[in-house]
């Protein structure tokens, strides 16, 4: 057999060129989608080192490319519907709103504000610098929204990102990552700034967390995955669970409070971790609050046997929610309970004691227990208890500034919404930016570009001021 020497030499040279350029051989992926986690991380590492030579204006351009790609009508509509179809959770109109929110209100490079200190001894700059390659774990509840806000923040910070999506959201997540890579490539960005694997799995997630080239981990999910990343030995951001209470006292605008609570609880069928999970109402206004919640789309269960049957239907022995009911609509759940409800029903409510599973367990479905208490101080104390120290989100409806302040100080949640629906806390009808990675356990709070960067000092010794 004749050996083609020229061909072999050209292949060897190609390999040497790749090694010289990135010190690693990049295996070709499909618009950021790789067969193995090692290939994905190595490709992201090469991309990030190339990215270091790009300007801040380039970063701003690429962030805008991400926004524009998501907001392109066919992309936005497709992935909003695909997320519902693939995961079986939530509703199209809410996915549409959340994807739009993530694309428009996630901060870009403007979040990276430089500090300058000048004086007799010279000049010091404190700037936000990239970590490098970030490993990001995304949930099935907000799959595309999390990829959008994380991609914007991480690329703005100068990082590359390796996503480990939930297997039950694989299709829609891979669609989005390919769409983003295609658009970024056309805009002149390095290939593979945003990567993942073709077959997400626990094994691939573990490989990502253990990979030496992954410098930072960001987990958006439940307590188990947050605990895992925190024990990884790497810089980690953990966006964990919540059990947001809402307190209503006798000074509140009860009609508005009822409407806001139903709207917040039913937003995407209660999938967001910020959503109202239990109501604690002062006795004197509880009846009127329930009356107005029913006017706003709540269906009240009063039969204790039916309530117990509902507990058995949607939870595992009252200890955790059954996956098949997470993110399902109120009419769907009622139908499984044997009740035919109007399609306009948004939330299922019932009165309960503090010890009830629906009060204690985060269900992530539109089921909302109402607990009566004697006064607002008792309501605040109970809210602190049932939030379980997650430091995630809480709401209060009141005109008493002192009591609003008291609850805010005692509950110490990342988000505290006063006199509004929970989603105001992520910028829907409320001021400020958005994120779907809300890091209570590790303290970053509402993450943004600066959460994915590290502070570095640049010191020039000697006079450098004009004073």
Secondary structure layout:
Layout: H1 5-22, E1 33-34, H2 37-51, H3 56-71, H4 73-87, H5 92-105, E2 115-119, E3 122-130, E4 133-137, H6 143-156, E5 160-164, H7 170-186, E6 194-197, H8 202-210, E7 214-220, H9 223-230, E8 235-239, E9 245-248, H10 254-266, E10 278-282, H11 283-295, E11 298-300, H12 304-314, H13 330-336, E12 347-351, H14 357-360, E13 367-373, H15 376-386, E14 393-397, H16 401-411, E15 415-418, E16 438-439, E17 445-446, E18 453-461
Parallel strand pairs: 1-6, 4-5, 4-7, 5-6, 7-8, 9-10, 9-14, 10-13, 11-12, 12-13, 14-15
Antiparallel strand pairs: 2-3, 3-18, 16-17
Helix pairs in contact: 3-5, 3-6, 3-7, 4-5, 4-7, 5-6, 10-11, 15-16
Structural class: alpha/beta
Low-confidence stretches: 11-27
**Largest sheet strand order:** 11-12-13-10-9-14-15
Q: Could you name the CATH homologous superfamily of the largest domain?
A: Aldehyde Dehydrogenase, Chain A, domain 1
Written overview of the protein:
This protein folds into two domains: 29-240 and 447-457, Aldehyde Dehydrogenase, Chain A, domain 1, CATH 3.40.605; 245-431, Aldehyde Dehydrogenase, Chain A, domain 2 (3-Layer(aba) Sandwich), CATH 3.40.309.10. The strands form four sheets. Strands 11-12-13-10-9-14-15 form a seven-stranded parallel beta sheet, sandwiched between helices. It has a six-stranded parallel beta sheet with strand order 1-6-5-4-7-8, sandwiched between helices. The relative contact order is 0.14. It has 467 residues and is of the alpha/beta class. β5, α7 and β6 (194-197) form a beta-alpha-beta unit. The chain is globular and about 70 Å long. It has helices at 5-22, 37-51, 56-71, 73-87, 92-105, 143-156, 170-186, 202-210, 223-230, 254-266, 283-295, 304-314, 330-336, 357-360, 376-386, 401-411; strands at residues 33-34, 115-119, 122-130, 133-137, 160-164, 194-197, 214-220, 235-239, 245-248, 278-282, 298-300, 347-351, 367-373, 393-397, 415-418, 438-439, 445-446, 453-461.
């Amino acid at each position: 057999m004749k050996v083609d020497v020229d061909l072999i030499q050209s292949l060897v040279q190609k390999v040497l060129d790749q090694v010289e350029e990135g010190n690693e051989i990049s295996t070709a992926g499909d618009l950021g989608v790789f067969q193995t986690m090692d290939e994905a991380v190595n490709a992201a590492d090469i991309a990030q080192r190339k990215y270091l030579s790009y300007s801040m204006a380039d970063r701003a351009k690429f962030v805008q490319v991400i926004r524009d790609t998501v907001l392109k009508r066919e992309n936005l509509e497709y992935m909003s519907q695909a997320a519902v179809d693939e995961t079986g959770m939530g509703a199209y109109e809410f996915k549409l709103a959340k994807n739009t929110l993530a694309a428009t209100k996630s901060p870009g490079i403007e979040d990276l504000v430089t500090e300058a200190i000048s004086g007799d001894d010279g000049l010091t700059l404190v700037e936000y610098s990239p970590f490098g390659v970030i490993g990001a774990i995304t949930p099935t509840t907000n799959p595309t929204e999390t990829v959008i806000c994380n991609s914007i923040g991480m690329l703005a910070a100068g990082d590359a990102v390796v996503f480990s999506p939930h297997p039950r959201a694989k299709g829609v997540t891979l669609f989005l990552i390919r769409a983003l890579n295609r658009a970024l490539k056309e805009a002149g960005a390095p290939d593979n700034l945003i990567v993942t694997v073709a077959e997400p799995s626990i094994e691939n997630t573990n490989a990502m967390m253990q990979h030496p080239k992954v410098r930072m981990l960001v987990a958006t999910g439940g307590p188990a995955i947050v605990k895992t990343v925190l024990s990884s030995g790497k810089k980690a951001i953990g966006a964990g669970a919540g059990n947001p209470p809402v307190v209503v006292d006798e000074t509140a605008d009860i009609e508005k409070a009822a409407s806001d609570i139903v709207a917040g609880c039913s937003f995407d069928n209660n999938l967001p971790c910020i959503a109202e999970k239990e109501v604690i109402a002062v006795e004197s206004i509880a009846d009127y609050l329930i009356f107005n919640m029913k006017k706003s789309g709540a269906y009240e269960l009063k039969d204790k046997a039916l309530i117990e049957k509902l507990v058995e239907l949607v939870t595992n022995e009252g200890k955790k929610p059954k996956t098949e009911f997470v993110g399902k609509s109120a009419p769907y759940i009622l139908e499984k309970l044997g009740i035919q409800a109007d399609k306009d029903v948004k939330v299922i409510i019932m009165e309960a004691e503090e010890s009830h599973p629906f009060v204690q367990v985060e269900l992530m479905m539109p089921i909302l227990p109402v607990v009566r208490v004697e006064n607002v101080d008792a309501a605040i104390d109970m809210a602190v208890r049932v939030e379980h120290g997650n430091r995630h989100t809480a709401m209060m409806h009141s005109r008493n500034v002192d009591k609003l302040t008291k609850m805010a100080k005692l509950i110490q949640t990342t988000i505290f919404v006063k006199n509004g629906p929970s989603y105001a806390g992520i910028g829907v009808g409320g001021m400020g930016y958005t994120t779907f990675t809300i890091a209570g356990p590790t303290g970053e709070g509402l993450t943004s570009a600066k959460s994915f960067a590290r502070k570095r000092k640049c010191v020039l010794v000697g006079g450098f001021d004009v004073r």
